[in-house]
Every structure is written in C-alpha cells, then in structure tokens.
C-alpha cells in the first residue's frame, strides 16, 4: 500500500488532484447542483429507491421512464467516498427532454467498501437495467452510461468486456459512454491523500485503471470532456486517455467545455441544449434509432 501519510506523499500532486480546491467556493458550486436536483424531482416523474443489487442493498432513482425510452445510467463523483443520488438528479432534465430516461445510482462509499466492490456495484446497475428496465417500459437494447470525476472512472470501467460474460450480459448491450473530468490512470493517486481512503497498492491501482484495461473497439461511441478551468492533472488524465482510446481504434469523441470547472460542467446536463446533453442524446439516437 502507498499511504497518503507515508513517505511517497507528494504535496504538489495532491494539490493538482484537489478538485474542491480548484474552485473558489465548493459549497456554492455544490449548492447549485443540489438546487437543480431538487427542481428535477419536482418537474420529472421519478421512481425512487429501486434496489439494483441485492448483495449490497444499493438503490437507484429512475427519472422520466416512459414506453420505449432508452435509458442512461448516471454515476456521481465525490472521489469514491462522498456524494449521493439525491444530489445528482441534475443529470436527468436535459436528457429526459430528449426522450431519454435517466437512472441515478447510489453506491457504497470508500473506505467502507473497496474500489473493486464499487466497480462491481456499478456493473450490476448496468445488468439490472438490462434485465429489469423493460418492466418500467424502457428500451433496453442498449444501456448507456455516464459519470463525472470518480463517476467518470466508474463509467468507463463498464467498458472492459470480461465482466459482461461473467454477469450473463449479452454482447452489444452496452451503449454510449460519456465520462466527464474522469480519472483513468489511478497510479498518481497513490501519492495523494485520496489513497488514505482508497488504500490501493500499485497492482490494484493498475488493475482498476481504465487506461490499462480497454476492450476491442465496438460501435458504441465513447465521449470525453473536461472543463477548461480544471487543474492540469484532470485535463492531462482526459488527454492521455483520449490518446490511448484512439490508438486502440475506438471511436472517441472530445467535447470541449472551455469555460467550465470540475463542478459546473456537470450541471449543464440539466439543460436540453447543453453541449454534453446534445452529444449524449445524439449518440444514443445514433445506435438505438
């Protein structure tokens, strides 16, 4: 294990990965997202607290379910140790306006759950939607996935195909994947305070890094974005992952968001005309006409 309190702790690297410290007022940024989430629950029909994983008891909220609507799973950030589905309802309004239902999930948080278990739960949410979405009227030919920050990492951890077979998920069921401000190579985090709760060693960090576990290319688009006002570390994570995806032949698309930071970039999903909303809606229509 490389502990944040141990000799490999790097204060400069820690600052580079300090998402909260990259904005003038985290409290104000988060309050704005909570307000958008509260509005979503007022304005959109939502089925709450649907258990998607019997083993952990974790649940999701399903916004805007209607006959034959495709569905996107949204995974919140919070460095794997914070956040909840209630405060992430903001991810729903934009896509619901385009005729796409949105499932917003909770997952067990670190350090109570190891990162491998969190990854398992996210994958199980995909399986649950594939198996049970039709009973809510949804078009489950493809399950689309998106997330931000730690949620961006978790979103792309649905890409490797080995787990699909183990879970009995048919080939081709995963749809468009969009990751915002994601963490794709976990090795740098071994030298930050983040590893104080993740408790990763170099081997686990590599095994749980999407940049090292990519599947063969498919027809499902992968979209990446990172705010232009984010730290160099977060922008570098996205740039390096995009390069690796392209080298492997994936149809990766970059959505430029130059004026946004690590937090307000996610709030744009509440806007039907936002660049991220439109990119996901178009990608979903492209592969599930």
UniProtKB/TrEMBL annotation:
Transmembrane segments: none annotated. Keywords: Hydrolase. GO terms for molecular function: hydrolase activity. PANTHER family: AB HYDROLASE SUPERFAMILY PROTEIN C4A8.06C, KYNURENINE FORMAMIDASE. The keyword Hydrolase applies. It holds the Pfam family BD-FAE. Coiled coil: none annotated. Residues 68-158 form the BD-FAE-like domain. This is Alpha/beta hydrolase. InterPro entries: AB_hydrolase_fold (IPR029058), BD-FAE-like_dom (IPR049492), GDXG_lipolytic_enzyme (IPR050300).
């Amino acid at each position: 294990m490389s502990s944040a309190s141990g000799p490999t702790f790097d204060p400069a690297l820690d600052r580079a990965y300090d998402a909260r410290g990259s904005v003038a007022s985290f409290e104000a940024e988060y309050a704005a997202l909570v307000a958008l989430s509260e509005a979503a629950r007022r304005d959109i029909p939502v089925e709450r607290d649907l258990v998607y994983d019997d083993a952990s008891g974790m649940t999701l909220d399903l916004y805007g379910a209607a006959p034959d609507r495709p569905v996107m799973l949204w995974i919140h950030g919070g460095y794997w140790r914070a956040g909840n589905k209630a405060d992430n309802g903001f991810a729903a309004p934009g896509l619901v306006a385009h005729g796409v239902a949105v499932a917003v999930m909770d997952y067990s948080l670190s350090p109570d759950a190891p990162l491998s278990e969190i990854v398992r739960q996210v994958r199980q949410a995909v399986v649950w939607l594939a198996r049970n979405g039709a009973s809510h009227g949804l078009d489950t030919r493809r399950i689309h996935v998106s997330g931000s920050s730690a949620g961006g990492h978790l979103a792309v951890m649905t890409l490797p195909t080995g787990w699909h077979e183990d879970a009995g998920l048919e080939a081709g069921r995963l749809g468009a994947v969009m990751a915002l401000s994601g963490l794709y190579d976990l090795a740098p985090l071994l030298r930050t305070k983040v590893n104080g709760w993740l408790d990763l060693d170099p081997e686990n960090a590599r095994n749980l890094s999407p940049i090292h576990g990519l599947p063969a290319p498919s027809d499902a688009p992968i979209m990446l974005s990172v705010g232009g006002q984010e730290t160099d570390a977060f922008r570098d994570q996205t740039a390096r992952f995009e390069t690796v995806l392209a080298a492997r032949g994936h149809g990766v698309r970059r959505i430029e968001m130059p004026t946004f930071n690590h937090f307000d970039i996610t709030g744009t999903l509440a806007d039907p005309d936002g660049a991220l909303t439109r990119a996901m809606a178009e990608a979903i229509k492209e592969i599930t006409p």
